[in-house]
Amino acid sequence: MWIYEKKLQYPVRVSKCDPRMAKFLAEQYGGADGELAAALRYLNQRYTIPDQVIGLLTDIGTEEFAHLEMIATMIYKLTKDATPKQLEEAGLGAHFASHDSALFYNNAAGVPWTAAYIQAKGDPLADLYEDIAAEEKARATYQWLIDMTDDVDLQDSLKFLREREVVHAMRFKEAVQLIVDDREQKKVY
Amino acid sequence: MSTQTLDEQYYAQLLQLQQYDFALVELTLFLDTHPNDMQALQQFNQLAQQRRQCAQQFEQQYGPLLQFGQSYSRYPWQWAQQPWPWQV
User: Fold this and answer.
1) Where on the tree of life does the source sit, at the highest rank (chain B) (predicted)?
2) What is the pTM of this model?
3) CATH of domain A19-188
């Protein structure tokens, strides 16, 4: 089971109301390489991955939910004081018409999240290579997001998330090696 | 907690807890792929103990961090009180 902890993994501060950035940040909320997709991808793959990698998928999948909450906090803080007119000017008119200021799992272009974004092949190497690619794509997205804002407070939180993608990719690469080593050892005996 | 004004100390204590948790998340993921690293394991257990004390202090002052019985509550029920993480 899971226990919720009433705190963010890392502080999220924003220095201004900025619905334009909120719209772009949705890419990491409900996008193909976003935090929701990451959490659901890993936590679903773990049931059929070799035993020595289950712990890693469980822990990274869980951490992704903490990142999802950080992104949600950014979007919430960037839009909570925006008027409908400001939302419309930021390209969020269609969002407002359907959701008011509520968050929704869609990407930056407004396309709703779909399970088609994620895969589970049952083949451990195929799954782990997808996971490594997902982390690298998310890292790239965070870099573009950092480049798109001059809000240093927001940049600080985004840089933390970008670095987490780097660490996750590294751990997944080690997991690939653990499985490869294990297979070679089995061949010897 | 809702009537309590969040002072500088709240943010400082929260940050300290987040710093412990950062080290512990890092060590957790590292140990997941390096289960035989004794030094990392010792660091993990040591920090886990310090983290527990830090969390206990925070909870005494600002209310429960966990629920389903993982944290205590004063009267009236503190869990559902503000602030939630995105409100600070």
Assistant:
1) Bacteria
2) 0.96
3) 1.20.1260.10
